[in-house]
Amino acid sequence: MSKSVEFFFDFGSPTVYLAATQLPKIAERHGATVLWRPFLLGGVFKATGNVSPATVPAKSRYMGDDLERFARRYDVPF
């Protein structure tokens, strides 16, 4: 049985960008393939009555710090 990772992504998401820089290496290390699945995160927010963390000041600040930490840790341009 072959291993795969379904990766749902929205081009507008900075967290997706960072994750996508690491996922292929992780999948390869474990003998898995990545199945890239585009979707619209805004549609999910709307369907669930949720909002982007970027619109909530405290979440936005933390997310910004977290993204910077991730980028530094994995040496990813951000």
TrEMBL record:
SUPFAM superfamilies: Thioredoxin-like (SSF52833). Residues 5-78 form the DSBA-like thioredoxin domain. InterPro entries: DSBA-like_thioredoxin_dom (IPR001853), GST_Kappa/NadH (IPR051924), Thioredoxin-like_sf (IPR036249). One of its GO terms (biological process) is glutathione metabolic process. One of its GO terms (molecular function) is glutathione peroxidase activity. This is DSBA-like thioredoxin domain-containing protein.
